[in-house]
Fold each of these.
Amino acid sequence: MRNIHAILEQMSLSEKLAQMTQLWGEFPDGSPLMGLHYDFHSNRQLAESAGSILGFSGAQRTMEVQREYLACSDKKIPLMFMTDVIHGYRTIFPSPLALSCSWSPELVEETAAVAAKEASVSGLHVTFSPMADLVRDSRWGRVIESTGEDPFLNSLYTAAFVRGYQGNDISESDRLACCVKHFVGYGAAEGGRDYNTTQISEYQLRNFYLPPFQSAVNAGCKMVMAGFNSLNGIPCTANQWLFQDILRNEWHYNGLVITDCTAVYELVPHGYSIDNTEAARSSIKAGMDIEMVSTTFYDAKEELIRDGSISMELIDQAVERILNLKEELGLFDNPYKNADPELEKKYHLCKEHREAARRAVSQSVVLLKNEQESLPLKTSERIALIGPYSDNNRLLDIWKCEGKEEECNTLLKGMRDGGIDVLVSPPCTNCNLTCQAEVPDSLNCEYEAAIATAGSCDKIVLALGEPPEWSGESGSRAYITLPDIQLRLLDELHKLNKPIITVIFSGRPLELEQAAQKSQALLQVWFPGTEGGNGITDVLLAKSLPQGRLTMSFPRTVGQLPLYYNTLPTGRPQQTPEGCERFRTGYIDTPNTPLYPFGYGLTYTTFQYSDITLSRHSLNMSDVIHASVTVINTGKYSGCETVQMYIRDIAGSYCRPVKMLKSFRKIDLQPQESALVSFTITSDDLAYEIPGKGLLTEPGEFHVFIGPDSSTQNMAAFILTVD
Ligand code: BGC
């Protein structure tokens, strides 16, 4: 065990502040090696002593930089390399929102472990994942990086990501340390505009936004990143209440905290700090250990501590945490850790990883509609494949790391390799229907070609969507429709009276009402990653049965946003789910309900639920209740059903949500097979966070709902009494 204190004692203030600085790893022209350059600042001394590097990887390159860096450093403190490995490094898995639709933390853990293995052999030490932001507004482009709108599910996923990346010991060769982000509330950006301010009450924060972070912390996550947003008037980067009171004091977190990119510098435009030095002071006081990309800590130097508001002790604590992570990663003993060009060749895109990615696709896609048994396809059918995503390899969202579009298999390739007789319409491959950010007003290619192709086939697979740049960071949209030109193509094809199976590639829930009306089947495939074409084909052919369930509600129209199932009731609820009654919460021109609710998803068979049986109708604080249903597979295919259990607290000191997901079970049933599914409810499941009082269970009436999605009305009531 290295004596971190002894190292710390020998360090100058300048060396300490350099450790607290993370620089961008490449010059704009792409040259690495001490190319630690930043637009606002270029300083060779800092470049030679900065504690960590962002966005720079590759076994050979990181080893060279590390060697050169250590040669200049008299203290021999190794560099840490960090980047955003979000859903794979070279083998790219479906985007996080897609993965979350598997309702499988096990799958998420497996994908994170593969990502860590591929990234660690390329010299990386830390990934800026998982993103734990709860999301309710699909105008915000970063919903694709999230795991959806539910705190319970999000918490399972953040813990699964942490386990997958870090394993039991981050010094092991195939592991990365990970960083949960963005603490906190970033997903509630007003109007869905990226980087926008957020206003979230403590009640909402504690019951919805904080739990996924706490779950990551409890799972042992090594780093936390502050959000760009201001929260109730104070930017997260300078928010002492968040980082000192909640994270450190309440949760006993002793890992590292990093700012988001240039966020300290941004305290000035936020209108919070008068200049960079004050911004640096506020951030360090709030608990920021590492400043990402801007260099206000380092630039302030002695100025930082001159007025006494920042003590050397505070700086030492931050540096100690940084050095401790380097020690825990094993970098003092082996600064190259797992970087190895030979292992890169062995692991990147290896057969095993590609197979895992393919399985992940088939578990992530969500079947939204399937009439007249349009799906599954049969290889004996002749299929017309039309639309901008037919033979398009843009299947990675904007966090693609080292993933390459040319290494993705397209839907056309997947379908042909799957033995489907596909006729592809010429405009799909090389015309203006190709997904581009610039969508033309007029359809330059002819509809005729598509229609001629469709006319000679049994079914149409129409691959529509938005291009990757339309979501992700800074990818907010005010209109969440499919490009008009694509809807016009759908209109034309609809006139042919052939079954249309529309496959939607997107980085968010889009408005799909029109697509749903004019298609017999609708399959949401998000950005499916390297194995997209194969994984989707597996589902189209029923080689893998669809099983994905939505983790974000799909709105009918953008005007319904923010939209989420676990909303608080109002004094004037709508009486019927589809109602638009006057003097009730809602709109006069559209229902409140989503087009597709949270938890929703079909498969090729159907399931029937019995009423709920309760083992008792009242319980006290130490009792348990078993709530059970019988589920029968009533269709012709075997299938996986995700049985979901929600609870409503009928009255409390705070208004309680109309439903909260508390548990779920995935069951496989053969045709006509049935299963008894039983959930155990304890008083812990009925507790919620009351600001100032903590986690409490209040006695009274509760409703339990068990069904296939969050709109279920299959309900039973029980009473919680005090002991
Ligand atoms: C994003 C973070 C990301 C960081 C480093 C920022 O712009 O908000 O999520 O981790 O860049 O790439």
Amino acid sequence: MGIIEKLRLDNKKAFVTGGARGIGYNIAIALAEAGADVAIVDMDEKTARESAEKIAASTGRKTIAIRADVTSKAEVDGMIDGVLKAFGRIDAAFCNAGICMNIPAEEMTLEDWNKVIAINLTGVFLTAQAAGKVMIRQGGGSIINTASMSAHIVNVPQPQCSYNASKAGVIQLTKSLAVEWALKQVRVNCISPGYIGTDLILNSELLKPLIEQWNAMSPVKRMGRPEELQAIAVYLAGDSSAFTTGSDFVIDGAFTCI
Ligand code: NDP
């Protein structure tokens, strides 16, 4: 079998949190195009359903939408039950849901801090834990967390200490789970994208005007597109990455190199 065939995800079952739009949606499309059945998990049930329908229409794969808030253990557990009911197993779990709050550290309330940590770090833990339990039981699987280049650098000029700290936590959580579950055949990796043109940036009154400044700082002089994360997602989800675990893939157009 050639490498392109080996990369295919036929008969695999996957879910993507924060899959209704942006990076998660593009990952979900890629998984389905590669042959997987995919559950779109999101807070925004309507968009999740529309996205699942679009992916099913263009790929012919089975897709479902499940509403869940990743900060709630009960909702995450319910989501996992829903995926198992629909698909019978979970081969690839993308813990991707995340938010950013741009507040100067000296003005940040405990509530704001906790909100970012709850979604970006605790949400990834709850989702990975619930998926990991299923994967251990079934004899293996692949978990992919979305960290960020903000785990490696301090973005400027916008203040976002809670986001940066949460994403650094995602990388160390990823490595910890990879080691704990290495002999249980559950692989855990993360991706650390640079600036990607999604609603997280384009819908933010504060961030959108900064794009020109960021592009000037970037060696490649542009932001990334969400579809430029699709190939790594397919690779990490499937069996051709069997020796890849505990790794963080920085995909940022060399932003963090300088
Ligand atoms: P978007 O804001 O476009 O999409 C995020 C999705 O996550 C939304 O559909 C949102 O739903 C959902 N979501 C938010 N909170 C929760 C929750 N508690 N439970 C379930 N779903 C939730 O963001 P991106 O696609 O840009 O970001 C995806 C991931 O990539 C995030 O973890 C982000 O930090 C990371 N990332 C993004 C970068 C970028 O430049 N865009 C760069 C590096 C990393 P709703 O609409 O209801 O809020």
